[in-house]
Amino acid sequence: MASWIILNGALLIAAYLLGSIPTGYALGKWMLGIDIREVGSGSTGATNVLRTLGKWPGLGVLLVDVLKGVSAIVLIRYIYSLTFTQQLATAAALENTATFLPWMATLAGFSAVLGHSKSIWLGFTGGKSVATSLGVLLGLYWPVGLGTFGIFGIVFAVSRIVSLSSIIGAISVAGLMFALHQPLAYVLFGIAGGVFVIVRHRSNIQRLLNGTEPRIGEKLETAASDRSIVLEDG
Fold it and tell me: How far is CA 178 from CA 29, 91, 168, in A?
C-alpha cells in the first residue's frame, strides 16, 4: 500500500511541476529581458504576453500552456497503463487501476492548474489557468475541451473580452461533462475547476459589472501600482 501511495503522490507532484513551468515569464526574460509580472496586468498568461510581447509570443505561450495540461493527463494514463502499476495495485489489495484512473486523472488536472496559477518557480504566482484548464479538458475528454473552446470563441467573437469568454467557458464545462455522460470525477472537475477559474477572475468580474473591462485591441495604460484597471488574463 505504501508503494501505491508513493507512486500516486509522485504523479501528482509531477503534474504540478508540469503546470508550473513559467512559459510567459521565461519568454519575457528571453525576448526582452523583462519580468512579465511587472508589465501590463502582471499575469504570466497568454493574454498579457500578447499585449506586451506581440501576437506570435502570445500564441506560443497559449499553445505551451495548453500542452502543460494535456501532458499532465497523458502522464497519468501512460503510467496507469504499465504492468508495473497494475502489480502495485494488486499488492495494495486493489482490484485494478481502471477504477482509480478517472480520479487520478482529475487530481492530476487540478495539480497542473494549480501549478500554472501558483508556480513554485515564481514565488507561487502565475496566470489565471484558463489555457492549462483547456489542456486538461482536452486530455480528459477532448469533445468537452473542443466544446468549451467553441463556447469561448463564440462569446469572444461577440464581446471581444477575454475574461468574459473565459468565465462563460468555465461555467459550461460541468454541463458539457454531464451531458456527454462522463465519469463523476470529470463532472466534479468541471464544477470545481470552473469555480477556481471564476474566483481567479473576480477583479475582472467587478470591472465587467462596472462596464470598465477592456476589450482585445484596446490600448492599456496603467501604472504598476494600479492593476485594478487592467485586463487580467488566463
Answer: 42, 34, 16
Tens of pLDDT, residue by residue over 112-168, are 999 999 999 999 988 888 899 999 999 999 999 999 999 999 999 999 898 899 999
CA dist., res. 137 & res. 150, Å (int): 13
* Rg for the chain, CA atoms, rounded: 18
What is the spatial distance between Cα 57 and Cα 54, in angstroms, rounded to a whole number? 6
Residue 146 is inside which H or E element, if any? Answer: helix 142-159
Give the Cα separation of 128 and 44 in Å (integer): 8
Q: How far apart are CA 125 and CA 105, in angstroms?
A: 24
CA distances from 83 to 23, 79, 88, 226 (A): 34, 9, 9, 54
